[in-house]
User: Fold these one by one.
Assistant:
Number 1:
Amino acid sequence: MDPKRALIHYFTGTGNTGHAVQRVADELARAGYAVTQYRVERKGALPAGAFDLHLFAFPVYGFSAPALFLQYVRELPAPPAGTAAAILSVNGATMAGGNVMPGCSGGSMETVARALQGKGYDVFLTAAVSYPANWTQMMNPAGAADQQLIFAQAAAEVAAFAAKLLRHHSGRGGSGRMSSLVAGVVAFVFRLYGRRVLGKLYVADRRCTACGQCVRNCPAGTIRMGGARPVWRGNCQACNRCINLCPTQAIQTSVVRLLVHGPILALAEVVLAVLVVVYGWPLTSGWSPAARAAAAVAAIGVLLVVVSLLQLTLLEGVLGWLERRSWLRPLFEMSFTRRFRRYLAPGFGPLSDG
Ligand SMILES: Cc1cc2nc3c(=O)[nH]c(=O)nc-3n(C[C@H](O)[C@H](O)[C@H](O)COP(=O)(O)O)c2cc1C
């Protein structure tokens, strides 16, 4: 008899999800499955044929599955009705008082499950595991001893998940502690807007050798060489592969960019919102209080959308121009991440060097 076939679809930024998936694949293979792993990255041909079991695994960014992964799931062809599928979200654990604090999936697994069920998959199992947090752009990754503790806990979580998968055990778990409404809003805003802004905070400092490894390894192909330094365009997934993979640790979070895209822009938005309300209020003098309040909220909403669009286009153009002035470059290269460690899961390295 032919062995059962399993297909693992996964995305990984810094290798944690790849690490978890390899362990699950090993367990499936031990149980007699023929396992194919498919790394969702840019465009590539989907493995052909029918599979008895599908696993969808992804890291969580801003309580969401990576935008690229969600798009991939939404574009998958429909399988034979009732095809078995499971979902694994790989979260970021941190340490607090010597204890491993698991991450939070928000509503990411439910969103992926809904997309799969809409295609006819039977999603029988969802679970979350926590690996070391990889958000080097904003926080110093765990040191070696803490990583060991987190990996020990992750190994147990992955083994428990694989055992359930093999027993075809039904279960929904691991969303974390957040209200689904709040988590859903955060995830939506992050996918649409947050991840793109995070990409605009990077700068490559003078240690950059223009080797192009960040360009070649960006899973969304959003980094290009602009002269002798990389430039981050608009489709950043916020996976933090570039900052962690750079061989000379030249990629940093620019403090100037962080201030402009963060507090300075937020302050400008507050001022503009106040002006809109102050000058718009008299124009609605004949309206009911509810209609006036609704109009004010709508006007502020439109204002925020317009400012966000200008932020990612006009403002970004101005910042890019200023950054290219050699006398201003040191200002843009000011960063706190120069002192941070870098994080890649064991065994994870560049996709290609050529
Ligand atoms: C921008 C960003 C946002 C993140 N948001 C979350 C989150 O909402 N919840 C969580 O548990 N972990 C979060 N993490 C941590 C990663 O999900 C975690 O480190 C994961 O194991 C990375 O997997 P990978 O190496 O396969 O990319 C975030 C990481 C980044 C870079």
Note: The pocket of flavin mononucleotide is lined by residues 12-17, 59-63, 90-92, 103-104, 106, 131, 133-135, 198, 238-240, 345 (CB under 6 Å).
Number 2:
Amino acid sequence: MKKYEKHVKKYLEERDWDKLRPADLAKSISIEAAELLELFQWTNQSLAEVKKDKVKLEMIKKELADVLIFCLEMSVLLGLDAGKIFMEKMKKVKLKYPARLFKGKYNDTDPGSDNDIYWKIKKEHRMKRE
Ligand SMILES: [Mg+2]
């Protein structure tokens, strides 16, 4: 991750964008995430269907890159270690959603069928403000 952070830092400094406000980056992350979401508006393709759709995959790559770039810009400008915060959060998420509760229960014809346990866990954690 350090390699990418260095690249982003240089990119920002070369353009005098290293003084951008965090709020503007948060807005940009959200806007790019919305552009990614828009690619799925009025569709309900499965993972396999999307992977086969080469045109859509190219568009997804572009929007995903936009989101990733703005996320890295924010972490760089705030002096955060993106790799470290990613791993810390992954550790928490793995504990929050134990694999034993989900593994083998995904139903591709009814993707929301394991949502009950997901929402139960999410609600419990929100009550604890985690
Ligand atoms: Mg975009």
Note: Helices lie at 2-14, 22-38, 47-52, 54-77, 82-96, 99-102, 115-127.
